[in-house]
């Protein structure tokens, strides 16, 4: 077994025996243990009682975190003419049509969010096997297929987070940085949990939220009291 470093050992000892915490308690503990030399991301994972093999149990949505993510988002937009100009004015990093499709096919995926106007979807559709597995495929359900390009780009740049249940029913996302004030992290975590709670699919039976874990990039995870977290 590999020998644990002093920082890792201290972090694990700090969380030992602590479970079913409130959001505020979990944030304080995780933030205190985020002692790496870089600004660690605070991450949340929710284990949901859904089977994503069934369409009526898929969990997907979007939430605007009140205090942003602390991450600089690169946004790609499929648009032409005035809508392309609108995307550029709103701060999009990559804009195009067929040329952007060819660039992506060549392996250029240096963006975190992909937005498209509806008329661009026949082009974007050819990229399903590339964008889909990376959760980058534009989708009207989360506002990334839209004529309101300006709002979509600004939302992505402003800290909007998309979420989608992975295989096994786990939803995972970054909800801020360790350098954020505790109060701001609490607001972000609560907003994310609330959004996932409201996205409960019609086919979900029994307990929907089974477990919630908060952690930092390099730190150990702590579990939250699900009932308390949902009601906060």
From TrEMBL:
Domain of life of the native organism: Bacteria
Signal peptide coordinates: none
Protein name per its UniProtKB record: Large ribosomal subunit protein uL1
NCBIfam families from the UniProt entry: rplA_bact (TIGR01169)
Function: Protein L1 is also a translational repressor protein, it controls the translation of the L11 operon by binding to its mRNA. Binds directly to 23S rRNA. The L1 stalk is quite mobile in the ribosome, and is involved in E site tRNA release.
UniProt xrefs under PANTHER family: 54S RIBOSOMAL PROTEIN L1, MITOCHONDRIAL, LARGE RIBOSOMAL SUBUNIT PROTEIN UL1M
Similarity remark: Belongs to the universal ribosomal protein uL1 family.
UniProt keyword list: Repressor, Ribonucleoprotein, Ribosomal protein, RNA-binding, rRNA-binding, Translation regulation, tRNA-binding
UniProt organism field: Pseudophaeobacter arcticus
Assembly mode: Part of the 50S ribosomal subunit.
Lineage: Bacteria, Pseudomonadati, Pseudomonadota, Alphaproteobacteria, Rhodobacterales
GO cellular component, one term: ribosome
InterPro entries for this protein: Ribosom_uL1_bac-type, Ribosomal_uL1, Ribosomal_uL1-like, Ribosomal_uL1/biogenesis, Ribosomal_uL1_3-a/b-sand, Ribosomal_uL1_CS
């Amino acid at each position: 077994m590999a020998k644990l470093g002093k920082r890792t050992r201290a972090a694990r000892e700090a969380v030992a025996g602590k479970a079913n915490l409130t959001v505020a308690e979990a944030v304080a503990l995780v933030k205190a243990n985020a002692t790496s030399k870089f600004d660690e991301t605070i991450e949340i994972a929710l284990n949901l009682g859904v089977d994503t093999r069934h369409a009526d149990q898929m969990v997907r949505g979007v939430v605007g975190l009140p205090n942003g993510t602390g991450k600089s988002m690169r946004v790609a937009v499929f648009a032409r003419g005035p809508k392309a100009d609108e995307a550029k004015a709103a701060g999009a990093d990559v804009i195009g049509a067929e040329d952007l499709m060819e660039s992506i096919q060549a392996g250029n995926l240096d963006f975190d969010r992909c937005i498209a106007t509806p008329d661009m979807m026949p082009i974007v559709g050819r990229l399903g096997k590339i964008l889909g597995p990376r959760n980058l495929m534009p989708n009207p359900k989360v506002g990334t297929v839209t004529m309101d390009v300006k709002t979509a780009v600004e939302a992505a740049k402003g800290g909007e987070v998309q979420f989608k249940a992975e295989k096994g029913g786990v939803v995972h996302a970054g909800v801020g940085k360790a350098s954020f004030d505790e109060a701001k992290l609490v607001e972000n975590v609560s907003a994310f949990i609330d959004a996932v709670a409201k996205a409960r699919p019609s086919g979900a039976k029994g307990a929907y939220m089974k477990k919630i874990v908060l952690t930092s990039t390099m730190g150990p995870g702590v579990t939250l009291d699900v009932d308390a977290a949902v009601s906060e």
